[in-house]
Amino acid sequence: MTNNIYMDINSLTNYIPLTKSTIYSMVSRNQIPYRKIGKKLIFNKEDINNWIDKGGKKNTTEENLPTFKL
């Protein structure tokens, strides 16, 4: 069983050096991993750590598609 630790936006700003407005902007552009419960944003600590390890780039389905040379 995994230990999921979730943070709200206030906890996240204490965990990583970003302001609330930057995080909200990144959420609106789908650039940071997040989940939404009702109107509340939550952030999984493991997802945030993985996101940081990848250089702050969120995986999208386009990035996961294989590339082909013609």
Note down, in words, how this protein is organized.
With 70 residues, the protein is α+β, with helices and mostly antiparallel strands. It has one domain (6-55). It is 41% helix and 14% strand. The chain has four helices and three strands. The protein has helices spanning 9-15, 20-28, 45-53, 61-64, and strands at residues 6-7, 35-37, 40-44. It has a three-stranded antiparallel β-sheet with strand order 1-3-2. It starts with 5 loop residues before the first strand and ends in a 6-residue tail after the last helix. The model is unreliable at 61-66 (pLDDT under 50).
Structure classification: alpha+beta
Strand order of the largest sheet: 1-3-2
Multimeric state of these chains? single chain
Range of strand content: 5-15%
Number of helices: 4
Instruction: Calculate Rg over CA atoms.
Output: 14 Å
Q: Strand tally, please?
A: 3
What pattern of helices and strands is seen along the backbone? Answer: EHHEEHH
Mean pLDDT: 86
What keyword list fits this structure?
70 residues; 3-stranded antiparallel beta sheet; globular; 4 helices; alpha+beta
Write the layout of secondary structure elements.
Layout lengths: L5 E2 L1 H7 L4 H9 L6 E3 L2 E5 H9 L7 H4 L6
Antiparallel strand pairs: 1-3, 2-3
Short synopsis of the structure:
With 70 residues, the protein is α+β, with helices and mostly antiparallel strands. It is 41% helix and 14% strand.
